[in-house]
Amino acid sequence: MYSASRPIYAVAGIREIESKLIPSARPSLMERAGRAAAEDAVRLIMDRPGPILIACGPGNNGGDGFVMARQLAQAGREVQVAFAGDAHALPADAAKACADYLAAGGNMVSDLPAAPAQGWALVVDAIFGIGLKRPVEGRYADWIRTLNAQSSPRMALDVPSGLNADTGQPLGATFRASHTTTFIALKPGLLTNDGPDYCGEINVQRLDIDPPAWLPAAGHAVTPALFRTQLVPRPRNSHKGLYGDAAILGGNAGMVGAALLAGRAALWLGTGRVYVGLLDPNGPAVDFAHPELMLRQASRLPERLSALAIGPGLGTEDASLAELSSALAREIPLVLDADALNLIGRDPQLQAMLAARRAPSVLTPHPAEAGRLLGLTTAAVQADRLQAAIDIAARLHALVVLKGCGSIIATPDGRWFINGTGHPGMASAGMGDVLTGLVVGFLAQGWPAEAALIAGVHLHGAAADRLAREGIGPIGLSASETIDAARGVFNGWLIEAQQGDHREKPRDARPLLSLGAR
Questions:
Q1: Is residue 255 pLDDT above 70, yes or no?
Q2: Residue that terminates a domain, selected from 192, 220, 248
Q3: pLDDT digit string (tens) for 12-38?
Q4: How many CA atoms lie within 13 A of 318 on its CB side?
Q5: Which of 88, 120, 358, 439 has its CA 20 to 30 A from that of 349?
Q6: 505 marked as binding residue
Q7: 243 appears as a binding residue in the annotation
Q8: Does 291 share its domain with 175?
Q9: For range 170-176, the mean pLDDT
């Protein structure tokens, strides 16, 4: 099921792959990386005149920059290299790359030169790579600030300097790239937290390496390939009983809308029957906008359900706690969100009940809720989002999505996924309720819990992306609007799957012009 997905490796994994390959790699990995970066640069600025500035640092990332500079110069581009270090102190491969660049007639200055009158065609950050763990200060911080001020395209090699490649946290001054060429495989910090704001468009150059052949990947970027096996057409001889009974439990006083949003999302996804159990004693008996929803008092939900979601608008009163305890005791797939997570976070007995469940459990916390589940501050969760999601999944024996920029999905056995769909317009009230409804809808229709969560998260963001392309948002997008869009996107996936065209198409990676001998 995962063969068509895109693997992600933490820095330790990339280092392990490199250690296995470096002794025998011909040409060297640095030579491959520099050439691949040069090819990407040519594609990026093919029609843009002017010189290219490459800022090289004191390590192997700088070595990649030297190789790139030599290749571009040999292809006829004007290149200027800035290098403030001691060439004799470079690592062996980087020192050779520097010497080869100079021997080929390259020039080098010890500080960033002033931009030419017409501006740089491209500025390249080859200062610090994936190993950076401390804030960038001094001369290199000044370089980064100067490079960020350039109006030209800005390209980072492997990871923008100053960005933690594992966590996506900026460490002091951080290069803000319009394009990032990363090597071997994706890294989590490129995809979550602040990473997407600093990386721009990301291109993976595998360097003729198949990473999973050297080290199985625990992480993957989410694509529809991960749930393609579930995208099957319905038989013409269908009835609603085939597509499950979902229920949403929540909607306390003043928060009925949260439960209705979740219910509508499950209904729009094709669930056979959707019940909404409300804790508000004065709650409505019918949703006049969508009378297909069956509204009940929370205590009167049917016993026989295919899947249950609890949390949207639940509240934290004694009645809410009682309903949550009963829900945890049900042996059906369960989605827990919002106040259900807040109640669990402060009650060890509920945590034990959740961890002991045999039916699938799905948790959808935002960072503050994740912090309550782990006994951490929100800032501590955001400092290492990946580890936080992994820890919750293992501790509570549940599937978890840590929502936010680059939502992270983690499984109890330590696997994880990062989703790339969605945009800042989704930072609005009710979006989490819609996600809960999508996931419980998939679960009610019999999808495996892992596929249901991955698909729900990906679909949620893809719906918002579609609306933005159509001019609806991103700013001002409402949760309600994403529900109809999600239905459209999902039906599009089904059509593509039926046509056998639901797979990623490889980018043509052939060089656009000669960059010298390999």
A1: yes
A2: 220
A3: 999 999 999 888 778 999 999 999 999
A4: 0
A5: 439
A6: no
A7: no
A8: no
A9: 96
161 is in an annotated binding site: yes
Q: Is 406 annotated as a binding residue?
A: yes
- Are 451 and 320 members of one domain? yes
The annotation status of 433 as a binding-site residue, yes or no, is yes
Q: Single out the residue in 196, 220, 244 at which a domain terminates.
A: 220
The answer to the question of whether 57 is labelled as a binding residue is no
Q: Is 199 annotated as a binding residue?
A: no
What letter does residue 511 receive in the DSSP assignment? Answer: -
pTM greater than 0.90: yes
Confidence of residue 500 (pLDDT cuts 50, 70, 90): confident
Q: Where are the beta strands (DSSP E) in 153-266?
A: 154-157, 179-183, 201-205, 219-221, 245-250
Task: Tell me if 151 is assigned to a ligand binding site.
Answer: no
Task: Tell me what the mean pLDDT of segment 448-475 comes to.
Answer: 97
What lies within 8 Å, CB to CB, of 257 at 6+ separation is 251, 313, 430
Residue 487 structure tokens: 């239905």
What single letter denotes the amino acid at residue 285? A
Same-domain check for residues 232 and 154:
no
pLDDT tens track for 114-167? 999 999 999 999 999 999 989 999 999 999 999 999 999 999 999 999 999 999
Consult the annotation and say whether 140 binds a ligand.
yes
Residue 96 annotated as binding site = no
Is 403 known to sit in a ligand binding site?
yes
492 is in an annotated binding site: no
Q: Is 189 annotated to bind ligand?
A: no
